[in-house]
Amino acid sequence: MKDTKLLTYLEGFVTDKRKKLFKKILENRTRHFTVVLEDIYQPHNSSAVVRTCDIFGVQDIHVIENKYVNKVSRYVAKGSQKWLDFYRYRSDGDNTKDCIENLRNKGYQIIATTPHNDSCLLSDFDISKKTAFVFGVEKEGVSDTILEAADGFLKIPMVGFTESLNISVAAAIILQDATTKLRNSEVDWQLSSKEKEIIYLNWIEKSIKSIDKIKALLLE
């Protein structure tokens, strides 16, 4: 069965209010920016970043699991993980390199969020290029592999005694600033019509209980 026929059928199980909300949110979703979480082992931190991505309209999250398994806490994420697309790198190979290669193939520049000597201040960051913001563990930061492969470095200006921010706070500050500038720019940042259709169908399916049984009956 074609997706259009499937969608038309499944939409009958969802309220008009919810369908309208999905379409409204999709107008503000973007893949111009994406977020990479490298070995974030604390569920409350990674979950807060997931929630932040949803809030600021970043559709995709790339999760690198070299040392630790990344888990999302539903109490922190507040269900936001349900509406995002996750790409996990957890094979026996070099997961960080696999992630970098995948992102480059999709046209992203790799930006490491770290107080590097050559770091660009957030206020000066060029939002015109497709960008993958990479966040690492709070103390250790991003890996050497990321530092060597990065196309640039980004830092948040700090004037206090403390020299680092919690990863979830850093992600919120960066994404709020970058997405606000993006939406006020002439950059083509919105999803394509096809991307919207795919995500919309996915969201519709996630909104229906016993979706597998319903689809099975429909296909019989």
List the defining traits of the structure above.
7 strands, 220 residues, 7-stranded parallel beta sheet, alpha/beta
Please provide a written account of the structure.
It is a single chain. The protein has a seven-stranded parallel sheet, with helices on both faces. It has nine helices and seven strands. Helix 2 packs antiparallel against helix 8 (193-206) and helix 3 (43-55) runs parallel beside helix 7 (167-183). With 220 residues, the chain is an alpha/beta fold. The radius of gyration is 19 Å and the shape is globular. The chain folds into two domains: 1-27 and 191-220, no CATH class; 30-189, Alpha/beta knot (3-Layer(aba) Sandwich). Helix 4 links the parallel strand 2 and strand 3. The model has no long low-confidence stretch (mean pLDDT 89). The chain has helices at residues 3-11, 16-26, 43-55, 74-77, 95-105, 144-149, 167-183, 193-206, 211-219, and strands spanning 33-38, 60-64, 85-89, 109-113, 120-121, 131-135, 152-155.
